[in-house]
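Agenda item 2: zinc ion complex prediction
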Amino acid sequence: MIKFMSLISGSSGNSTLISDGQTHLLIDCGMSGKRLKEKLSCTGVDPQQLSGVLITHEHTDHTCGVGVIARRYGLPVFATEKTFGAMDIGAIDANQINIVVPDTDFVAGTIRVTPFSIPHDAADPVGYSFCISGEKYTVATDIGFMPDKLFSHLAGSDSIILESNHDIEMLRYGSYPYDLKRRILSNVGHMSNDLTAETSLRLADSGTKRIMLAHLSHENNTPDIARITTASMLDREGYSDVELYVADRYDVTAFAV
Ligand SMILES: [Zn+2]
Ligand SMILES: [Zn+2]
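Presented output:
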């Protein structure tokens, strides 16, 4: 049974689970080992069964639990070389280190994985897509803008977890300091709801059936605003059959796959 679930999502922590029933991979672990155990308890996957953890980039909302769980469960860790250099996960064994290269497929257990570069203010950030039984699953968050090359990696995903970080007006008129606003709005920041809606439309056009909006800002977005922005775009263009989910900040959100 295939599982594709957001365990937690947002600037307070991110982690995703993908499983084909044999191989159980985490993408990022921005939470404590204890909390991970709690979150996994409602997924049917025991932490002891995890096959590895794939890192998107070094920011602590994606990596703060990685060292602990890698040591505790002896997990292989997958990341780009520069991300390994930039992240602070403490000591792990050399044989747990797996370097990934953007645009170069690899196999983790029984799952084929493609890492791809994303524009974000980190050392060498990536998203991942996974091929299981001919279906494509993608995780793409922490993205400043959507160049064509990046979109080509997302296109054709059957199910995708896609960032929908902020409402531009809420951010602009909100309480964040100027520099932080500028960073979020920059080409190496985060996706606005408008960019997500536009990207979702292109994805629907490429055959995507299920979209989960993720990494929502606590201050500058709400689940309703994020959902409505993308849903109204999809409805207007005749794609109301695309299933839309919003990843919960603190709880497991599963695709009905
Ligand atoms: Zn980040
Ligand atoms: Zn993040």
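Discussion summary: The chain has nine helices and 14 strands.
Owner for follow-up: CH.
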